[in-house]
Amino acid sequence: MTEPRWHNIALFSLLHDLSLSLLASLFAVLVIRWVSEPIPGYTRLVLIWLGFSTLGSVSGILLSGCSKDVKKYASVRSIARVIYALSIKEVVIVAVMLAGLVRMPSPAHGALAVLLDITLSAVALSYIRLAARLYSRDSNVAVKSACKSALVVGTDNAAISLANDLEKEGYDVVGFLSRRENISGRVIADHVVYYCKTDEDLERLQWRLGGVDGVFFPRKSARLDPDGGDLKDEIPQEDGMSMAGHIIKRAFDVGLSGFLLLIFAPLIGICAFMVRKEDGGPVIYRQERVGKGGAPFVIFKFRTMHVNAESTGTPALYSGENDVRLTRVGRFMRAHHLDELPQLWNVLRGDMSFIGYRPERPFYIDRIMEHNGRYRYLYQIRPGVTSYATLYNGYTDTMDKMLTRLDMDLYYLRNHSVLFDMKVLGLTFLSIISGKKF
Predict the structure, then answer these.
(1) Where in the chain is the domain with CATH 3.40.50.720?
(2) Backbone torsions φ then ψ of 48, nearest 5 degrees
């Protein structure tokens, strides 16, 4: 009974991979038309190119067996098979070009077409597998509903250790309990902190959470921890990404930022013209931020506020789209995140990465450090144009939000990887095109 179903899945996977491969081939040959003079017989060239791309793709998929890696859809082995399949496809295309069946305007155009074809195909097929892995990982959250749920009293090291032990035993730890109202809603060790001072508070919380199977105390006690667990014993936060991951991430940053600077050059020019035209002031806003190693750097943005927005000399946080300091053009650019485009130059230079933690001004870092000195652990990595915390915590205009963002940034620091970064980048892209405000 399972054999026909397996073949159906494998066939679907083959057709899916073939479609993505052909789309990449089509885009590659369209780019050649875009960067060259008019090509005689271009329609015939496209049809021949796609025809042999189909032949090469089918041959590569069948010979490599990548469409059979359904159960291990996101494994290293499946990615290696994808690269093997695409190599066969490109061998077929190069052979056809050498035989003269496909005539590009020049050998350089032909080499560019092949390079674009294999790069776009590899990115598309690999990304869809990695996305499938992330989706399957997220879908496993539903399984937790069958686990016993637990709340842990306190937020100190002992509480965090107990939460980890409970999860190893199969419990679903839904959060920490604290008597400190000012840390309610914070995220510690990937769990939310709930304010709970009395037994009535605990009953209301259990009702709100849909029932909790158990409340666990890290120490022998019949009452809530009186100090609420203030994290006096600090846990060092270490960078969770491997050296190989950092190399891949930096290569990706350089390649993508350079590519986007070229692609968005017309848009950058239009934005610069509009900023200048509105009030004749500077186009680029430069501001000192603190980055990797605690070293200061200058961040670049399109100016969205009036020239004298901080004439008092005291830094002020952006208060939203109704901030009176915004210019008319600046309000539009902020709403659509166009003011961040110059940061592509920061990424290319190495000041920033696409994904990291949002860099902050020294003025606010000093105030964050007064509440939580663990901010210094973020200096191990480059700050980012976007971040995991930005997606879920939004713009930080209060100290409480800054501290919550810090907890989420530290979670990212401990757990980030190439796959994690791809997920954040993909979700950021979806948020931008859907018009989400953050």
Answers:
(1) 147-216
(2) -65, -45
φ, ψ dihedrals at 296, nearest 5°: -75, 150
For residue 69, the model assigns a pLDDT of 53
CB distance 231 to 156 below 8 Å: yes
Residue pair 154/178 in contact (Cβ under 8 Å)? The answer is yes
Tell me the C-alpha distance between 389 and 404, whole Å: 8
Which CATH architecture describes the domain 147-216? 3-Layer(aba) Sandwich (3.40)
Work out the average pLDDT over 24-30.
Answer: 86
Q: Are 315 and 288 in contact (CB under 8 A)?
A: no
Q: Which long-range contacts (CB under 8 A, 24 or more apart) does 23-29 make?
A: 23/124, 24/116, 24/117, 24/120, 24/121, 24/124, 25/49, 25/50, 25/53, 25/57, 25/117, 25/121, 26/50, 27/116, 27/120, 28/113, 28/114, 28/116, 28/117, 28/120, 29/113
DSSP strand pairing (384-387 vs 149-153): unpaired
- pLDDT of residue 140 exceeding 70, the answer is no
Q: Rounded to 5 degrees, what are φ and ψ at 327? A: -85, 170
pTM: 0.48
